[in-house]
Design a protein that fits this description.
Distance between the termini: 21 Å
Oligomer: single chain
Order of helices and strands: EEEHEHEHEH
Shape: elongated
Number of helices: 4
Helix content: 25-40%
Strand content: 15-25%
Length: 172
């Protein structure tokens, strides 16, 4: 399978990575504001604070930083307010859950389709996966055969691989 690397965003010392934008959020015990911020390197991000005063205080003490580059030179961006229309939210209708067998079937089809669109390196799978992972070969999707202990070794090295059971037509 294809070996990939993923970059992880740095979380600032203030721990203020947020996922909602530009509104006040009430929970059972707290009210927080979500601010849209931008650093001097033009990285945009969101942060949660107890109040505008709390943000200003933390910023003045150097506790708020950009999660991408660590810059402390930040400014607020304009954001749309959130207005809660009622204090009691109406329970939503339960979502229909998909049949797990259908989900598994679709997942296996997608994995097999991906495998069909990859280069078959046969018994050289472990060797080629290592070359790709360490930058000694071009980054590409590969498939092949490997012994279970080789797969464990690849995983131990941090090389992501996915064993794929053969399709009915692939059985010899």
């Amino acid at each position: 399978m294809r070996a990939t690397r993923q970059a992880r965003p740095r979380q600032g010392k203030s721990g203020t990575l947020g996922v909602l934008s530009g509104f006040v959020r009430s929970t059972a015990s707290h009210t927080v504001i979500v601010l849209d911020l931008i650093c001097n390197q033009e990285h945009r991000f969101e942060a949660w604070f107890a109040s505008s005063t709390a943000f200003e205080d933390q910023q003045a003490r150097g506790l708020v930083e950009c999660p991408h580059c660590g810059s402390h030179q930040l400014r607020r961006l304009p954001s749309a307010p959130y207005v809660q229309r009622s204090s009691a939210s109406q329970p939503s209708a339960p979502e229909a859950r998909p049949d797990p067998r259908q989900v598994l079937h679709k997942l296996m089809e997608a994995v097999r389709q991906s495998a069909q669109n990859s280069e078959d390196v046969g018994q050289r799978f472990a060797e080629e996966a290592r070359k790709i992972h360490y930058g000694d070969a071009e980054d590409r999707a590969i498939r092949g055969q490997s012994r279970p202990e080789e797969i464990r070794s690849l995983l131990d090295e941090g090389i992501p691989v996915l064993p794929v059971p053969p399709d009915k037509t692939d059985l010899h």
